[in-house]
Hints:
Elements: H1 2-22, H2 32-39, H3 42-53, E1 62-63, H4 68-76, E2 80-86, E3 98-105, H5 116-136, E4 141-143, H6 171-183, E5 186-195, E6 201-209, E7 215-220, E8 226-227, E9 230-231, E10 246-248, E11 251-255, H7 264-272, E12 277-282, H8 286-289, H9 293-304, E13 307-312, E14 314-323, E15 332-339, E16 343-345, E17 361-368, H10 370-379, H11 381-384, H12 387-397
Parallel strand pairs: 2-17, 3-4, 4-5, 11-12, 12-13
Antiparallel strand pairs: 1-2, 3-17, 5-6, 6-7, 8-9, 10-11, 13-16, 14-15
Amino acid sequence: MEKTSETNATNGELKDVKDAINNGSVCGYDSLHQLLAQNLKPELFQEVSRMLLGLNCGKLLQSISIAEPVKSLSLKHDFDLQAYSFHADKESFRESRIVRVGLIQNSIALPTTAPFSDQKRAIFEKVKPIVDAAGASGVNILCLQEAWMMPFAFCTREKKWCEFAEPLDGESTRFLQDLALRYNMVIISSILERDVSHGDTLWNTAVVIGNHGNIIGKHRKNHIPRVGDFNESTYYMEGNTGHPVFETTYGKIAVNICYGRHHPLNWLAFGLNGAEIVFNPSATVGELSEPMWPIEARNAAIANSYFVGSINRVGTETFPNPFTSGDGKPQHADFGHFYGSSHFSAPDASCTPSLSRFRDGLLISDMDLNLCRQLKDKWGFRMTARYEMYAETLARYLKPDFKPQVISDPLLHKKAT
Length: 417
């Protein structure tokens, strides 16, 4: 009888965990960080935080006080709100270069069966209070998630979703230009771009809007995922804009869109072009990539001595027509749960806690850009790198007659006598 009770209790606990996973939470908590904070003794939590998040200039990352009107906005519109500060050592010949940066993650606002114009308008209405909160907090640079102005319909392979595409200076850009001008804020907007000048070609594009409301430039996604049946080249191909770094009044920034984070040389190229902050607007689901999410961007920040802002949308988006994913599973109507968890990584290996795994959110960070050069001086990665050797290897690899540099043990294939 006791064994049956124990089994029932265990089954109940497993059901609770499964339900929590299905709704996007971490066993009922917004994030792993929140779970640990509320279940560990303070001294244990501090040590775990040190191990998981690292130290910034020898100290745990500090929280930033948030103004009450901004807190009220987050409560009214139910979005997660967190703010932290990255410091750098004080220098003798340079003043601190502190910039306030923000990341927005959000779910869609209406079912994917609603008229497209209604869906888009509802997303604008949902995102605006979060942008207002960033503006009221004095954010200098703000980045939204990948294709924020539409459902992430690229998993469906249906062409009707192309209707959401718009020119570089289209509706989404104009909407954000007004807010950029109002708040003196640089805004990175990732859209599905329709290139009217080149035969209505589609691109996955990040538009960089200046703090005067002007368009500084664009970057088109360099790497396209082809994982099973999930193939974004149904809609657009690899970008043709290289690895641009945009010099703004607040610093030099770049945009590594979504799947590009899996390619170390992509991160490297933005660093070689002088980026101080690289944003990674994404749309990725738990089963596919969550174990990699806290690692890749943080590693890029360390290896390239710049800050990284990682943004992922939240929620499960259900589509009217089922589709397959080439993984042996039956057809389904959703791509999976977009797990949010947006965060910042710094060149000294420290990083912020993540935003919620299932709620909309705004993450704010003050970062002293002097930290970039200080870490370059400390580790000397640029001086000790062997770029000429890498270039030679890559040049050989690109040739049809390439042979890997493998030295075999001469006894490896010798027959025993």
